[in-house]
Amino acid sequence: MPNDIQAVGDDPRGEAAPPGTLQAPPGAGRTAIQLIEYSASTLEEHADCTVALLEERRGRSPVQWVHVRGLGDTDTLRAIGEAFGLHGLALEDVLDVRQRPKVEHYDEHLFVVTRVAVPGRPGRTSQLCLFLGDGFLLSFQEGSDAWLESVRQRLRQGRGRIRESPVDYLAYALLDVAMDSFFPPLEELGESLEDLEERAMGEPGPGVFEAIHVTKRRLLALRRSVWPMREMLSHLLQEDVPWFSGHTRVYLRDCYDHAVQVIDLIETYREIAADLSDVYFASVSVRLNAIMKVLTVIATIFMPLSFITGVYGMNFRTDVSPWNMPELTWRYGYPAALLLMLITAALLMVYFARRGWLSGKAEGRGRMDDEAQ
Amino acid sequence: MPNDIQAVGDDPRGEAAPPGTLQAPPGAGRTAIQLIEYSASTLEEHADCTVALLEERRGRSPVQWVHVRGLGDTDTLRAIGEAFGLHGLALEDVLDVRQRPKVEHYDEHLFVVTRVAVPGRPGRTSQLCLFLGDGFLLSFQEGSDAWLESVRQRLRQGRGRIRESPVDYLAYALLDVAMDSFFPPLEELGESLEDLEERAMGEPGPGVFEAIHVTKRRLLALRRSVWPMREMLSHLLQEDVPWFSGHTRVYLRDCYDHAVQVIDLIETYREIAADLSDVYFASVSVRLNAIMKVLTVIATIFMPLSFITGVYGMNFRTDVSPWNMPELTWRYGYPAALLLMLITAALLMVYFARRGWLSGKAEGRGRMDDEAQ
Amino acid sequence: MPNDIQAVGDDPRGEAAPPGTLQAPPGAGRTAIQLIEYSASTLEEHADCTVALLEERRGRSPVQWVHVRGLGDTDTLRAIGEAFGLHGLALEDVLDVRQRPKVEHYDEHLFVVTRVAVPGRPGRTSQLCLFLGDGFLLSFQEGSDAWLESVRQRLRQGRGRIRESPVDYLAYALLDVAMDSFFPPLEELGESLEDLEERAMGEPGPGVFEAIHVTKRRLLALRRSVWPMREMLSHLLQEDVPWFSGHTRVYLRDCYDHAVQVIDLIETYREIAADLSDVYFASVSVRLNAIMKVLTVIATIFMPLSFITGVYGMNFRTDVSPWNMPELTWRYGYPAALLLMLITAALLMVYFARRGWLSGKAEGRGRMDDEAQ
Amino acid sequence: MPNDIQAVGDDPRGEAAPPGTLQAPPGAGRTAIQLIEYSASTLEEHADCTVALLEERRGRSPVQWVHVRGLGDTDTLRAIGEAFGLHGLALEDVLDVRQRPKVEHYDEHLFVVTRVAVPGRPGRTSQLCLFLGDGFLLSFQEGSDAWLESVRQRLRQGRGRIRESPVDYLAYALLDVAMDSFFPPLEELGESLEDLEERAMGEPGPGVFEAIHVTKRRLLALRRSVWPMREMLSHLLQEDVPWFSGHTRVYLRDCYDHAVQVIDLIETYREIAADLSDVYFASVSVRLNAIMKVLTVIATIFMPLSFITGVYGMNFRTDVSPWNMPELTWRYGYPAALLLMLITAALLMVYFARRGWLSGKAEGRGRMDDEAQ
Amino acid sequence: MPNDIQAVGDDPRGEAAPPGTLQAPPGAGRTAIQLIEYSASTLEEHADCTVALLEERRGRSPVQWVHVRGLGDTDTLRAIGEAFGLHGLALEDVLDVRQRPKVEHYDEHLFVVTRVAVPGRPGRTSQLCLFLGDGFLLSFQEGSDAWLESVRQRLRQGRGRIRESPVDYLAYALLDVAMDSFFPPLEELGESLEDLEERAMGEPGPGVFEAIHVTKRRLLALRRSVWPMREMLSHLLQEDVPWFSGHTRVYLRDCYDHAVQVIDLIETYREIAADLSDVYFASVSVRLNAIMKVLTVIATIFMPLSFITGVYGMNFRTDVSPWNMPELTWRYGYPAALLLMLITAALLMVYFARRGWLSGKAEGRGRMDDEAQ
After folding, report:
1. Could you tell me the pTM of the whole model?
2. Does any domain span residue D307?
3. Which of D237, D260, D280 is the last residue of a domain?
4. How many CB atoms lie within 10 A of CB C356?
5. Helices (H) and strands (E) in chain A, counts
6. How far is E326 from chain A (nearest CA, A)?
7. What is the ipTM of this complex?
8. What is the dihedral of CA B286, B289, B295, B296, to 10 degrees?
9. For residue B90, is it within any domain?
10. Which of A186, A276, A315 is best to mutate for the E interface (most E CBs within 10 A)?
11. Same domain, C222 and C107
């Protein structure tokens, strides 16, 4: 559970805390503010800047991107909230890092919550919150923001149309990179399913099923993030959302298509994983049958033989009566007994061979190999 | 059944009782009325007040909260209903403590039924009914109302914006605390699933499956309460509900988001629980295979050996014929027989080792451990 | 099948019969007409009245309730149909007692088909058809109409508002009693599930599963009746149905809430029943494992022991060679052999105890008991 | 597969054939045209008439029903198409006998595809295509049209309102008979389920499961036909379909109700069939447990007994040492040994009786019989 | 995995590449441009033409079809994009060959992505992108375009109405052939299911289940392609798509019907495949029961017999006491012992025959054969 499905944990507000109370999420890092101001021709970066500086620079550039990393310092966050006129509930949502992706409209800005897949840990996601206002974009990132570096590079190098575009294109760029962060973990899970399929069709140990279960859990966790992301993007695409221009909306539609594609893959993988459970059970039950056949063949052959030896191991006194085990004194008694056993065994082998118990498994396998070509 | 899925019980109305007949629910406690009147600057509490006092104080404060705890005294309830002009059917719903959350519009007030998770008993809920009118909020609580203490504290201490806000904010505050009461039982169930997952992957006894079943039942019970709560909140958020101001509606939207989050978790946990059943069955079937392998290996090795001892335990008379068991009189007959048995056993061991029956389990486990890292 | 899911049977119309042909359902009882006329102050009952009397009394009272019990006499029914101007297809529907609940609008009246749970036979329902016109209500009941007695009593005693209300309230009263007839069978099925749960967790015989299956079938049958009843009630609640006044619509909404509650319970019970199947299979597979463990432990202990006795039961001649079974002539040969067997058995017991095969079951049970508290 | 789910077969058009190319379906019969002209007072039948005659008689009667049976003669069909101005794609659909039921609007006529259950072969359907125009109805029937005889009889005998009604009523009559053709196969499948239920609860052989599977497949095939029929009828009921008068629409609504009823039954039967699979597996697993119990009881009793006989079958020499099997020379050695075996067997029997292994099955059965009452 | 569910692979854009960057898909072939210009009376083909030629010929014919095969040469593709004014994102979609079918509206043209089934490899699809503009159709095909030959032939031979129709009919013709390409693989999968059904009902080896799994995976892959194709076609059928005339829309509707038919078949096959898994498990479990019966019968008969031989193989000294195994010295001791064994075996056989263990299987089979007729 702790890896993928993020536990509900303690409600961020205390028992009797009124709504809007700010509490840092457990394990939150130091809060660092980065300001990037740019236009088509200029770009200025301020690492580790203060709230005071933010207010001073407000409105100096066509586009201002204020990026806040780490949610540990509630005082700074509250100061930013006041500087940008953020609603208390929105700020509370920023600090509650288990939010589902969503869009909320405020008078002064648009509030968007999205999730980003954590690289190398399929199923894990972190939270990115965006406030898109008039000429500024305010972003809050829980945990690492290394995945944003590609956007920063594009800004610095002025590649693509990002520097010439207004702030809504920057918001799109962040959402797009966030969306695309889901492709690598899905690829990883796809390969893992491929591997599990092969193992489930062979001689699966208990580990195979547990690995299928883990994969299912990870897909479930991704799904929980991506479905509401699609809804959120679909909402942003509606005509009546004023914060995105028609030009940027074309790009958002592309991002929406990616969300649909990711969901499509997740659902496909989930079906395959569900089907793999059945493949596993089929393998196990076939092997149980095989084991039981071995036992039955052995027992069925040796029990009659042992019975025959038992009969001639009885101690009836041959000397007191001619009826008592005369075979024991025949000249060819022993060879005859051995022959009897041999014939018994042979007849049983023929019986089992006819029922296909002696070669069943190999043949089944052969057929499958044909199928798989 | 009796713990989680509340039985239909007897219909509260008797056989030929017309609709609107009031009957106390079985086991209902003494009815106690509490009146809290407040404005931004003042707050007055009347514990255990009478209906007469209620009528006298009516309209004396900007906000009046009449809280009724315990539904045992139908006469008092009927008197309150008459004092506030409640519809007979609404009052009947208050007394039928198995209601699904819902909203009903009456001319004079809004009637809301919601459910509250009972702390420490996951799956159990109690019923809270609200009548939201002009300047007053009438609440009816079945069973304990300890969970309301946090709202009372906020009122008394004047924390947050509750004291400055009109009565709709108070209604929101109650609905919000009711909604948030579902987080702790869900957390408990999440931990229980985590624990069950570990046990299902090990050597599960029958208790594991029964515990999975109990967890499923509890999730089902919570789900029955929360889905209609979401509908109810979604209804309250519609523009045409006049009882909530735009200001409070922002807060209700937050409460609605919590409902969505709770539903999301419940559905996720339900999927995990369903999957755990499969993990359990996989564990059990793998262990059956392991047991059968032990049996088969033992039987397959000892049956031929016993057969050999049986052969040389036969009593064919060696003295009447040189064909009769001459081995018995060979000098190295006994060691040869022992050697034959040893070789037979060794060959069978090699056969089983090649099929992987001797070390299968350990290896399967090892793989899983890799997976789980 | 014949108990719960009512078979399609023969189409009531014969092979080449045109639509609108009347045929009594198989086993239909004698047709009896009862007329109850009432106003707030008066009430007159005519048991076993004729069609002629019906026409004579037409319009003499504010409310006339014509109740027809038993559908065996098609001539009478056709006469009633002509007297009240019923459409041929509607009358055909009255006689086809396997109708799903529905509403149909005709110019002169509203036609409603509903179903009533048969008391004491969960899953079984009978059909009630209503024609609601201007000042009259025409009801047709297949089989027993004892469940209507409560409405008749309320009319006779003038309890509640039924006597003062117009005819639509009477229609509501019948629909309400029909809806509430589903609570007792559901309660019964809920108790049956409770009982089955206990048995499925114990040592379930085949009867348990068959009882689960029967319960599922009964829930399925109830569900088939109640889902369309909800649709039907939802249709009646629409503003554009002119036959129900706003006043009665408040009551119908209450009836609709009951339908939702019944559906909610049915779906919950269906989920629990589905889950019980899994509990059953889990119990059975755990017990199979337990059985196989006993077999394996016994076989694994006694096969080596028997092999040892077999070795010393061989007849190699000790007198012809010192190599031939010298143990047989040792002074402590026999005690040594017994000791060997004892040690073998002890070692195997230790092995099984370590794998937990000797006490596994008891411990699993213990855990469950903790869980269930 | 070939029986129920009709294979896709070859696309009727050849590789490079443009849309609208006509190809007779494989195995199509000779094309025969029948013309029935009628009004309230007159009726004229022309069996095996030609396209020329059709054109000559065009418009001579208020209602003309041209019925074409057998789709083997594409030239004739093309000629009919030209005579009535049918669209090439519609005619192509007539010849593609695997169409789903649908409605298509053309300027001159309404095109309806429906399916008819083949009597005696549950799951099998044939195709009926209708072109409803101004004063004429053109119907194309693949295979046998014996099921239409009832409509022809009603026309000839002037029963019901069919002769007085315009052509849309005739179209309804055909659709109604087509819809009602699904009741008999459903009845047959219902009886088959009833029978299978009984067998699945007894001692099911593999045939039972295969029969359940066949029933499921047939229900699936019926479902594929009836769902789109409901859609088609629902479409025809819409106000904006000009070809049906308000009067006939009342009848169509009845036909739509039958479609809903059929779907309801199909879905119910599908659920029951799905549930029967579980009943089957439960029966099988219970019987496996019973078999294993027999084996375990037998083995557990006889293995210790055989071990005892083995001990006293050892050949330790009693003459060389008083420690060597002195029991063999005791006076009551043999009776004592037999007694030991008896006690061992008795103790084991008591153990098994306590675990309920000796009588488990009978008791389980008894319970079920109670349940089923 | 790699065969059917196309892996996500590397995102076509590099790490920091802005949207609209073109990258050839892995393994893309050489880009070849073919231009077909035609009117009702003329047709001109230019194989392997250049972008310059395309621009030169622009608008010279009523209909121009530019077909691009192979996506390896991004420079050429970019040049085409510029020549026809394609949006960067659309061109990026052309190169991302894992797109879901979709429609996008641009000012100058309509952009359609569809998928084509690869012949002979059920489950595999390739991508076709269409840009439908004013008088021209631009198509991009990944991989082989042999399936388009039939359209080219119809153009060259002037068959059907394709030459007389404007460019939207050409677009329809391509979509129609793409849609119809799904019928052959479905037919193949249908036959494979038929074959698997037969094998699953017989004595299934593990290969059968794996083949069912592979079939399910292929159906899943087809489904992923066809569902969005239906959506896409449904979108094109809407009145407000200006690129298709009313005349062509009639044909598109036919194409849409084929999509519905394909989906219907896929869903039906998926249900059958899911059901086949159950048939398989039923077969396997029935066979396990059969195996266990053989083992139990053998063990139950021979264990008591061996026990009897064991008793008379004991070495109690008959000479020291008349109580010690006097049977050994009886005249008919041995025959009596043999008789005892015979009676024991016979009684056990009768017991098993009564429980139906000796003939169970054959009878089950016989019943099924009846069923299947």
Report:
1. 0.85
2. no
3. D280
4. 14
5. 10, 7
6. 10
7. 0.81
8. -150
9. yes
10. A315
11. yes
